[in-house]
Amino acid sequence: MRHLLGTEALSRENAIQILDTAQEMAAVGEREVKKLPALRGRTVVNLFFEDSTRTRISFEAAAKRLSADVINFSAKGSSVSKGESLKDTAQTLQAMGADAVVIRHWASGAPARLANSGWIDAAVINAGDGTHAHPTQALLDAFTMRAHWAKLSGTSSVGADLTGMRVVIAGDVLHSRVARSNVWLLRTLGAHVTLVAPPTLLPIGVEHWPCEVSYDLDATLEAGVDAVMMLRVQAERMNASFFPSTREYARRWGFDDARLAKLDALNLKDTIIMHPGPMNRGLEISSAAADSPRSTVLAQVRNGVSVRMATLYLLLAGDLRENTTTSTPAAVNNTVPNAKDPS
Amino acid sequence: MNNSSSAFEDVHNSSAPLNVSRVVLTAADIERALTRIAYEILEANKGSANLLLLGIPRRGYPLAQRLAAKLAASDPAIDPAAIVGQLDVTMFRDDLAHQPTRAPQRTELPVSGIDGKTIVLVDDVLYSGRTIRAALDALVDLGRPRAVRLAVLVDRGHRELPIRADHVGKNLPTSSSEKVRVHLAEIDGVDVPDEVVIESGPVVIEGGA
Questions:
Q1: What's the per-residue H, E or C state across A172-235?
Q2: pTM
Q3: Which residue ranges does the record assign to the Phosphoribosyltransferase domain (chain B) (predicted)?
């Protein structure tokens, strides 16, 4: 594994290795000294072209817990606002000796461009690109689900996958990189995924995704579900009218108090409610649902640090420099088509 | 010392005709060495009070469990499950940047914690001493033991750091080109008996390459 750009090409072995490593990392957060020396002397750059709270802080905390040096870079207030290109920014980071670049970008494919262009040697971790992928979010969701799933079956979650778990992902699928990354990863891990959204908020070609699609949240809940993931309505990406009114959206596709009560009525006492954050309370999720004991919103944030520690550790702790210095230019060219494959 | 004991099995298999290996400890020898070490630990600690055994993955952990069972056999006050733990040192190694990425193993401490305890680190092979150095660093982050001792099944020499074992199953003079392989049922399966084997390195490498 050289880069983490998406979950579509992530093999089951690699996914489970990341989750298992994250499990060990989670134990560090409970210790007196919450720090490991594994990445001492490595530099991680958080390159954020888009606003973010939890992802950037989570990556920063993860890198610091592994003793890496962290440089935060946000496009606002940098030379990017003067028109500097991604290439020049990347080469500046390269010259400063970055070992890993955590990139969030509004353009789908920007991390892949950075990883495959040969501009930099650093490992590239996709922290969300456009409407394409957000692999660490999918991994932390899978980590949260796996912990829940293992607790239910009373087994150890180490080495386990999500076989048999029924996951509903509901909301603004069209604009959601979280939904896309989750669909691919959960498929790899053996879960059964159903997307629920208004037809206007489903992307073209969704029928070819490895999941079911429904327009009716109530019917999907009644069919039985182990985890409900509500997606944020991404108003900032909506340049057209996708649903008549927020009240209608909340009533038909939001997880409101009535649907929370319905889970109890359906005797689905072990169903968890997930949300990648930030939440629009009252729109896609009601406050009662977000604050209920079923909600794993804060657990997801906590697990995010562990999963990102695992990702940074697995990408950075090994011998990276030797690979990059011994490979000839021809070899680099040969690996370009495969470089997107994180395995 | 996982690297000295486990990583060379494939080489061993692929070069069987040229491989020169000899068994230096049989299952019975290992058993006797552990029995002696268990008594030594009790003697050095003047009893079993505040004693914890921390095995270093992978093969140190089953050895620690076996030692605890022996301690419990001689002192009924000991609960073997309560004094054994596993200490992963992967993240504290000084060669992380020079090797392919290693997956970390689980660290499990006894519920009593390690503060004020006498810790006996248990590993299979003591070689350069770097694993033990990493283990000492890992311990510091977990608490402050009263004392740390070291018990190993085999001491093969070639130390690169000022580290010495308090309890040694067998001192084994080796050449640095030789490989010491420890086979334990808990890790390697019950098909092959427990044993410690020396494989002569150069012949294996030529045969394997």
A1: CCCCCHHHHHHHHHHHHCCCEEEEECCHHHCCCCHHHCCCEEECCHHHHHHCCCCEEEECCCCH
A2: 0.85
A3: 29-168
Find which of B87, B94, B101, B111 to mutate to test the A interface (most A CBs within 10 Å of its CB): B101
A48 lies in the same domain as A129: yes
Inspect the interface and report whether the beta carbons of A313 and B142 lie closer than 8 Å: no
Same domain as A164, residue A127: no
Which residues are CB-neighbours of A64 under 8 A, at least 6 positions away? Answer: A35, A70
Are A308 and A292 part of one and the same domain? no
- Counted across chains A and B, CB pairs separated by less than 8 A come out at 52
**Has A104 been labeled as part of a binding site?**
yes
- The tokens for A193 are 């995924």
Nearest CA in chain B to A19: B103
Measure CB to CB from residue A24 to each of B106, B137, B140 and give the nearest one.
Answer: B106
Contact residues on chain B for A314, CB-CB shorter than 8 A: 101
User: Which domains does chain B show, CATH number per domain?
Assistant: 28-172 (3.40.50.2020)
Residue A6 lies in a domain: no
A24 vs B88: CB contact, 8 Å cut-off?
yes
Query: CA A260, CA A316: separation in Å to the nearest integer?
Result: 42
The residue with tokens 């089951």 is A12
Going by C-alpha positions, the residue among B28, B5, B1 that lies closest to residue B134 is B1
Best residue in B109, B133, B141, B144 to probe A by mutation, most A CBs within 10 Å? B141
Q: Please give the pLDDT value at position A29.
A: 82
The string of pLDDT tens digits covering residues B8-60 is 444 444 444 456 889 999 999 999 999 999 999 999 999 999 999 999 999 99
Q: Percentage of chain A surpassing pLDDT 70?
A: 93
Q: Are A291 and A329 members of one domain?
A: no
Asked if residue A252 belongs to a known ligand binding site, the reply is no
Q: A294 and A328: one domain?
A: no
Same domain, A166 and A83: no
Residue B123 three-state SS: strand
- A301-325 confidence digits (pLDDT tens): 999 999 999 999 999 987 654 444 3
Tell me if A51 is assigned to some domain.
yes
Minimal Cα distance from A2: which residue of B?
B101
Range of the domain at A209: 136-298
For residues B148 and B116, give the distance between their C-alpha atoms in angstroms, rounded to a whole number.
10
Instruction: Give the chain B residue whose CA is nearest to the CA of A26.
Output: B106
Using the structure block, give the residue that is written with the tokens 């207030």. Answer: A77
Contact B104 A313 (CB under 8 A): yes
Residue A4 within any structural domain of the chain? no
Question: What is the per-residue pLDDT across A173-218, written as a single tens digit (0 to 9) for each?
Answer: 999 999 999 999 999 999 999 999 999 999 999 999 999 999 999 9
Residue A221 resides in a domain:
yes
How many C-beta atoms lie closer than 10 Å to residue A100's C-beta? Answer: 25
Q: In A, which residues are within 8 Å of B95 by CB distance?
A: none
Q: Is A132 annotated as a binding residue?
A: no
CB contact under 8 A, B103 and A27: no
Q: What is the CATH number of the domain that holds A127?
A: 3.40.50.1370
Is A54 among the annotated ligand-binding positions?
Answer: yes
Q: State how far residue B101 is from chain A, nearest Cα, in angstroms.
A: 4
Whether B102 sits inside 8 A of A17 (CB atoms) is no
Domains of chain A: total: 2
